[in-house]
Amino acid sequence: MIWLVTFVSCIWLIGAEAPPNHYVRNPRVIGGHDAQPNTWRWQVSLQFDSYNDGSYYHLCGGTIIDSYYIMTAAHCIISMQANQYRVVVGEYDLYKYEGSEQFIRVQQIIVHPGWTEDLAKGNDIALMRLSSPVLNNGYVEIANFPYPNEMLPHAFTCYITGWGLIDFGGSIPATLQVAAINVVEHSVCSQPNWWGSIALKSMVCAGGDGIVSGCQGDSGGPLSCYTGGAWRVHGVVSYGPAGMCNQVTKPTVFTRVSFFQDWIYSIVRSF
Fold this sequence. Notes:
This protein is mainly β. It is built from 2 helices and 14 strands.
C-alpha cells in the first residue's frame, strides 16, 4: 500500500501584514533557492485564521487566475467558512511588509464536485472568489493557462514555487522559493515502482530524482512552465510521498490544469 502525504503547511504564525524573489543558492522548496523578487507574480500565499482572532498563518499556495479568483488545491480547504481565509498576492517575505502585498478576504469557496478527499481519485482543485479584486500594482499578474488538454513531454523542465518546508521536518522559509523540476510523463509515473495506478492522466508528475520536490506548505501552488511562447500554469501541487518529500521515483504530483479548464471557466464566467 502506498501512503500519501498532502503538502499542507506547518502552522507558522504570520504577523499582521506582509512580495516577489533573489537568486541565492540555498536548499529550499526542496532542492531550490530564493526566487527573484517580482518574478512569479501569479503566486499566492493562502492564509488561514484558526480562531478568528486575526492571527493568520501560511496554509497553502495558490495562483491568481482572474482579478476575483484564486486557484488552489481542494485538500487545502480545511474549513468551508470563507471568512477564515485571506489571500496575499505580491508576497515575497512572509515575515516582512514590503509594500508590494495585497491582503484580500475570501468571499466564496468552490471545490471541484468530483473531489472525494481521496487524493488517488484526483480532482484536487478548488477556486476561491475574492471579496475585492486583485489590483494591478506592478507586483501581480493573472496566470496564463495551457492549451486545453495539453500534456507536457517527458523531462520537460518546469518550475515549482512556494513557501513549503525546505526539508522534511525542517522549517518554513521566509522568502518565496523556486526550483527547476522535470516532468515525468504519465507512462513512466504510472509504472508500479513509481506511483502506479494512482497517477492519473488528470495529473502531472514532476521530480522523482531524490533532489527536487514540493513539500508541506507548497500545496495548491503553481507548476509554471514556459510553453507556447509564455509562462503558463500547468499544475496545482497535490501530493507526494509520506516521510521525506524528495524520494527517488516518487515525484511531486500536480492536478493537471489543462484537464480542468472547462470547469474553471464555467465558474469564473458565471459571475
